[in-house]
Write a structure and sequence with these properties.
6-stranded mixed β-sheet; 5 helices; alpha+beta
Length: 231
């Protein structure tokens, strides 16, 4: 029983030191606040620290009384019950950790088996996968270069365009930065300026796809129209 008392006393002493440190910290903070000009913020902070000090002092008094009871043996039965409950909780947590660890091991073993089967089935397609990876890398590099070279006038216009309108620049779609306009959610308009100066306008509505050509300040001319297949 003496060992159990010693353990409980050490635990209480540690808690008392922590409370003392907190009280000193709040007390020092109060000294600084008392020296400041009076205002609502300072008064709130003073009240906050004073309340914390009172709470810590009350907790200190409770722990000191408990320490006396431990020394006198009044809490022997309670300490035994608390230690038993703590041991029970510790054992439950330990068992839970073991169960989680075992579950992870089983999952890893299962994943390893699946991975091995997958490798055996797909190793002949590695060459195709490497090709696709290189192709994707080249596409991504092209995308980055295109984004870096978007003309300044397009960047300015995109800032005032809704995000269902935009430009085609070096095969990359650059969409507007603003929200879609109400009632225009099903429509998409893309402008594709050719090297010749001709502007090709692609327009998708709910049920139609149209292509317009526009040269300079002339009115745009419809050059293609087809029905959209809704899925």
């Amino acid at each position: 029983m003496e060992d159990k008392r010693k353990h409980e006393k050490n635990k209480i002493k540690i808690q008392l030191k922590e409370l003392e440190a907190c009280i000193n910290k709040d007390t020092n903070a109060l000294k600084g606040l008392y020296e400041q000009s009076d205002c609502e913020y300072v008064r709130v902070q003073i009240e906050r620290h004073e309340t914390r000090i009172e709470e810590k002092k009350a907790e200190t008094e409770r722990l000191e009384n408990r320490l006396q009871d431990v020394n006198s043996g009044k809490l022997d039965n309670i300490i035994i019950e608390e230690r038993e409950e703590s041991s029970k909780i510790h054992a439950e947590k330990l068992n839970a950790k073991r169960a989680i660890k075992l579950d992870l091991i089983q999952k890893k073993e299962k994943e390893a088996q699946i991975s091995q089967r997958h490798y055996n089935l797909t190793r002949q397609s590695d060459r195709d996968s490497r090709y696709l990876e290189k192709s994707a890398g080249r596409s991504y590099e092209h995308f980055l270069r295109a984004c870096d070279s978007v003309p300044e006038y397009m960047r300015r216009n995109l800032k005032s365009m809704p995000n269902n309108k935009g430009y085609i620049w070096k095969s990359v779609w650059c969409m507007g930065e603003l929200p879609e306009e109400p009632g225009d959610e099903n429509n998409i308009t893309i402008f594709d300026k050719q090297r010749s100066g001709l502007m090709v306008i692609h327009e998708w509505t709910y049920d139609k796809y149209r292509i317009y050509n526009k040269s300079g300040r002339d009115r745009r001319t419809l050059v293609h129209e087809s029905n959209r297949i809704r899925k």
